[in-house]
Design goal:
Elements lengths: L2 H4 L7 E3 L8 E3 L9 E4 L12 H6 L2 E6 L11 E4 L3 H12 L8 E6 L4 H14 L4 E4 L4 E3 L2 E3 L8 H13 L4 E5 L2 H5 L10 E4 L7 H4 L2 H13 L6 E5 L5 H4 L6 E6 L6 E8 L4 E5 L2 E5 L4 H16 L4 H8 L10 E4 L5 E5 L4 H15 L5 E5 L9 H11 L3 E4 L9 H9 L4 H5 L1 E3 L3 H11 L5 E5 L6 E4 L2 E4 L2 H11 L1
Parallel strand pairs: 2-3, 3-4, 4-5, 6-10, 6-11, 7-10, 11-12, 12-13, 13-14, 18-22, 19-20, 19-22, 20-21
Antiparallel strand pairs: 1-5, 7-8, 8-9, 14-15, 15-16, 17-18, 23-24
The protein binds ligand UAG, adenosine-5'-triphosphate (ATP), 2,6-diaminopimelic acid and magnesium ion.
Length: about 475
């Protein structure tokens, strides 16, 4: 694609050099630059991408998009200066890959918890309804059946538009994606055309990055502010910030609620560990999910499907056949008759809700033993709150390592214990080794009890000092049961 076409969606302040050159690739990372590429210099949180302009040119870049022009310029390179390269990166990537988001119905899901669940269920549901679909999520990306491993909840703008273009090539009509607050703040989704957006909920997370809850909230809101008039915005009326999210959007607003009047409503008729019987918009349906929060997730899925012009009867029929998403409230039954639940709860709110869901089913008839930790190099303030939520609804808590990343695991656990009083500490064990912690929880459990293993869900690694060691909570549980 020639440079003048490539930059047709942005407003350069200055252009130096030939704009009729052919560009065969674009990237924000100098390490991925090859011959005849455009390098986009982005000022990041760790380094300033402008430092890599020279390296990128040595690797073959023939055009550079930047905010600050370098003093020494190469004669064969075209320099394009813009105000904000973060924003421009998304727009240029979209143009380079043929504006793929305009060729599919793209629905974005944002909020603290529930994004993976909702996006994955929509992908599974629309495939059951007979459509070709794509999915961009924390667990894995999918182009129809083809799995493309995910490093991030939302990929960088280049990878994102590349994957979307592959989905268009594969004939996908619908694409469901998670929009993390990092991705919205870093404009990874700039230039995308959304058919709809969904808001799940907002509670504490990622304050290491956003600094204040207001910044975090407004990062999520920015997604709805940017939705086009043709799109829909579905919001959770039960969440304190549900209406705030959509107050400035141009999209058609619809609400969902399990408590009050809303466009999409539901209530629980019955619930077991195997699933729930629900009434959604006046129709009854059996689903294989538990927990009130999953009623909200299913309502969001139902609402989005209605807005995407599917028939309520077809949606509910497909909904009744869907299974829980990997590592989200996934039950594993022990030979001794207790139930283990593997779940990705890694925020105070998620822990509270998962434990509520477990108690709803247990109905006072068994003990709850919770194994949990907190991630290293992430929001420290959530650590004591997570310990508090765990102890509030558990008979015993075993604090253990999650992904310590570059922190000492014992320091993370000490931060968690800061949230507990002496009586609560007496109900708590600290076992740094996660496998040992899970084993101990299982040895304490009896028939009818529940062992909640929280925090890592689908993850198949434990990240320690920058190295990902193979580790999977479900595998560990099966191994324990086999050796019993
Ligand atoms: C804090 C954060 O979110 N950082 C993300 C951000 O990086 P950054 O802009 O800070 O990059 P940087 O390292 O300062 O580098 C600046 C620029 O120089 C470039 N560079 C750097 C080195 C080099 O040799 N050459 C070069 O060109 C980089 O490619 C970049 O363009 O943009 C990068 C590209 O999109 C991301 O890979 C990176 O994710 C880091 C690794 C990360 O761990 N992010 C997590 C926190 C994250 O994004 N999580 C959310 C979800 C959380 C949730 O689901 O709850 C996610 O969407 O996954
Ligand atoms: N609607 C919800 N409300 C509160 N908690 C939820 C909700 N849905 C899921 N959870 C809890 O949050 C955990 C994470 O769910 P999920 O992976 O769907 O969220 P996510 O928003 O994609 O998270 P991430 O930001 O890490 O990608 C689940 O394992 C469950 O404990
Ligand atoms: N996307 C989230 C996932 C957290 C998962 C948990 N296992 C942890 O490592 O903290 C994050 O990067 O903060
Ligand atoms: Mg997710």
């Amino acid at each position: 694609m020639i440079i003048s076409k490539l930059i047709s969606g942005i407003k350069p302040i200055n252009i130096i050099g030939d704009v009729n050159k052919e560009i065969v690739g674009v990237n924000i990372d100098s390490r991925k630059i090859e011959a005849n590429h455009l390098f986009i210099a982005v000022k990041g949180t760790q380094v300033d991408g402008h430092r890599y302009i020279e390296t990128a040119i040595e690797k073959g870049a023939v055009a550079v998009l930047c905010e600050d022009l370098p003093e020494e310029k190469a004669a064969h390179v075209t320099y394009i200066q813009v105000q904000d390269t973060t924003q421009a990166a998304g727009v240029v990537a979209t143009v380079f890959y043929g504006e793929p988001s305009k060729k599919v119905q793209l629905v974005g899901v944002t909020g603290t918890n529930g994004k993976t669940t909702i996006a994955t269920l929509l992908y599974n549901l629309f495939r059951k309804l007979g459509y070709k679909c794509g999915l961009l999520s924390t667990v894995c990306n999918y182009i129809e059946d083809e799995a493309v491993p995910a490093d991030h909840t939302t990929p960088d703008p280049i990878e994102l538009n590349y994957l979307l273009s592959r989905m268009v090539e594969a004939g996908c009509e619908y694409v469901f994606m998670e929009c993390s607050s990092h991705a919205i703040a870093q404009k990874r989704i700039a230039g995308l055309h959304f058919a709809g957006g969904i808001f799940t909920n907002l509670t504490r997370d990622h304050l290491d990055y956003h600094k204040t809850f207001e910044n975090y909230r407004d990062a999520k809101k920015a997604f709805f502010d940017s939705l086009p008039k043709t799109s829909f915005a579905i919001t959770n009326a039960d969440d304190k910030n549900g209406m705030y999210m959509v107050q400035n959007t141009k999209a058609t607003v619809k609400t969902y609620s399990t408590r009050s009047l809303a466009d999409f409503k539901a209530r629980i008729i019955e619930c077991h560990f195997e699933g729930m019987y629900l009434e959604i918009d006046g129709r009854e349906v059996g689903v294989r999910f538990i927990g009130k929060f999953n009623v909200s997730n299913l309502l969001a899925v139902y609402g989005a499907s209605v807005m995407l012009k599917q028939q309520p009867e077809d949606i509910l029929l497909a909904l009744s056949t869907l299974h829980s998403v990997s590592g989200r409230l996934e039950p594993i039954y022990s030979p001794e008759g207790f139930t283990c639940i593997v779940d990705y709860a890694h925020t105070p709110d998620a822990l509270e809700n998962v434990l509520l869901a477990i108690h709803d089913v247990l109905n006072g008839k068994g003990k709850v033993i919770t194994v949990c930790g907190a991630g290293g190099n992430r929001d420290k303030g959530k650590r004591p709150l997570m310990a508090q939520e765990a102890i509030k609804q558990s008979d015993k808590v075993i604090l253990t390592s999650d992904n310590p990343r570059f922190e000492d695991p014992q320091d993370i656990l000490n931060d968690m214990k800061e949230g507990l009083n002496n009586a609560q500490l007496k109900k708590t064990l600290t076992i740094v080794d996660r496998k040992e912690a899970i084993r101990t929880a299982c040895s304490l459990a009896q028939k009818g009890d529940v062992v909640l293993v929280a925090g890592k869900g689908h993850e198949d690694y434990q990240e320690i000092n920058g190295v990902k060691h193979h580790f999977n909570d479900k595998e560990v549980l099966y191994e324990i049961f086999q050796n019993d």
